[in-house]
Design a protein that fits this description.
five-stranded mixed beta sheet, 21% helix, globular, alpha/beta
C-alpha cells in the first residue's frame, strides 16, 4: 500500500499529508521517508492498539478541517452523522475513509472528502489533493499511476 502513497507524496510535494486510517503503520513509514513533510493521521477500524487520536480538527489558513476514519460515524450507511459532527465543530471540510470509495463534494458550504484508498481494495487506487489559497479550499481526486 505504501507505493501509491509514496508516489503521491513524490508527485504532489505537499506541505501536509493527511492519512485517514487503516494501516497507520504506513503513515508512520511515510513520515520517516518524508521527514520534511508534516504528516497527521487518525487510526481506522483495523488499527487495533493505536494510541493516535480517533479524530482531529486542524486549521490551516483559516480553514478548519475535521479528520476521522469514518467508522465511528457510520459512513458506510451515509455521511449524515459525519456532516452533523463537522458542522458542530465549525469545520469547512470533513475528511474520512472507511468506505474506500473516492468522494469529493461540497454540500451547503461543507466539503466532504474521501480519498478512496492507496490500494486495490476497491478498483483503481487513488488519493485526494486539497489546495488552500487565500482561505479557500478546493479538492481534486487523483488516480495512482
Amino acid at each position: 500500500m505504501l507505493g501509491c502513497a509514496y508516489d503521491a507524496v513524490e508527485a504532489e510535494q505537499p506541505d501536509l499529508v493527511l492519512h485517514l486510517g487503516d494501516h497507520v503503520a504506513d503513515a508512520e513509514d511515510l513520515a520517516c521517508a518524508f521527514e520534511q513533510t508534516e504528516l497527521l493521521y487518525v487510526p481506522g477500524n483495523c488499527d487495533w492498539g493505536s494510541t493516535a487520536r480517533e479524530s482531529l480538527l486542524i486549521e490551516r489558513e483559516g480553514v478548519r478541517i475535521f479528520l476521522t476514519h469514518g467508522h465511528l460515524f457510520g459512513v458506510k450507511q451515509g455521511t449524515q452523522r459525519l456532516e452533523m459532527e463537522a458542522r458542530r465543530l465549525g469545520a469547512d471540510a470533513a475528511l474520512y475513509g472507511h468506505t474506500h470509495v473516492s468522494f469529493c463534494e461540497k454540500r451547503d458550504g461543507l466539503w466532504l472528502v474521501n480519498p478512496g484508498a492507496c490500494s486495490q481494495i476497491s478498483g483503481r487506487p487513488g488519493y485526494a489533493v486539497l489546495e488552500l489559497s487565500a482561505g479557500k479550499l478546493q479538492c481534486r481526486l487523483t488516480a495512482c499511476e
